[in-house]
C-alpha cells in the first residue's frame, strides 16, 4: 500500500490532465479528436493510451479517437509516430502545432539546416 495517499491523489490528478507524464504546454484541457486510417485505427483502439479515451468508427472505416487532456511534447510525438496514418481533427491549436512541427522537420532536411535546440513545449512562466 502506498504510504502517502495525498501524494498519490495529487499524482493521479496531474496525470489525468496529461497525455503521458510530460508537463503540458499550458493549463488548458482540450477536447482532442484524432482520425486514424482503418488499419492503424484498429490497432490503436485496442490499446490503453489515456484514462478517458473513446473510439468511434467512421463510415469509411477509419477510427476517431477522442480524449480530454492537455497538449504536450509526448502527445505531439505520439501523433508523429503514426505518420500519414493519423490526422488531428481538433482542436485547432494542436492541428496547427503538428503542422508547424512537420514543416520544421521538412525544412531541416530540404534546406539542410543545422540542428539547434527547439523546445516549443516549454511552459512560459509569468514573472
Structure report:
Strand 2 (54-57) and strand 3 (63-69) form a beta hairpin. The protein has a domain at 24-110: Alpha-Beta Plaits. The chain starts with a helix and ends in a 17-residue tail after the last helix. The chain contains 4 helices and 4 strands. The protein is flat and about 55 Å long. With 127 residues, it is of the alpha+beta class. Strands 2-3-1-4 form a 4-stranded antiparallel beta sheet. The protein has helices at 5-15, 38-44, 73-81, 92-110; strands at 30-36, 54-57, 63-69, 86-90.
Short description:
It comes from Chryseobacterium taklimakanense. The chain has 127 residues and is an alpha+beta fold. Helices cover 36% and strands 18% of the residues.
CA-based gyration radius: 17 Å
Strand adjacency order, main sheet? 2-3-1-4
The CATH architecture of one domain:
2-Layer Sandwich
- Helical residue percent band: 25-40%
> What is the rounded distance between the termini?
40 Å
On the 0-100 scale, what is the average pLDDT? 91
Number of helices: 4
Please count the beta strands (DSSP E, at least 2 residues each).
4
Q: How large is the share of residues in beta strands?
A: 15-25%
The major pleated sheet works out as: 4 strands, antiparallel
| Unreliable segments of 5+ consecutive residues | none
Amino acid at each position: 500500500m502506498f504510504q502517502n495517499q495525498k501524494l498519490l491523489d495529487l499524482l493521479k490528478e496531474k496525470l489525468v490532465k496529461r497525455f503521458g507524464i510530460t508537463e503540458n504546454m499550458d493549463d488548458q484541457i482540450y477536447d482532442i479528436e484524432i482520425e486514424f486510417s482503418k488499419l492503424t485505427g484498429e490497432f490503436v483502439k485496442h490499446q490503453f493510451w489515456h484514462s478517458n479515451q473513446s473510439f468511434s468508427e467512421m463510415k469509411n472505416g477509419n477510427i476517431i479517437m477522442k480524449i480530454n487532456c492537455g497538449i504536450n511534447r509526448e502527445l505531439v510525438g505520439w501523433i508523429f509516430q503514426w505518420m500519414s496514418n493519423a490526422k488531428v481533427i481538433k482542436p485547432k491549436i494542436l492541428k496547427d502545432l503538428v503542422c508547424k512541427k512537420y514543416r520544421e522537420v521538412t525544412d531541416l532536411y530540404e534546406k539542410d539546416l543545422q540542428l539547434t535546440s527547439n523546445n516549443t513545449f516549454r511552459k512560459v512562466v509569468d514573472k
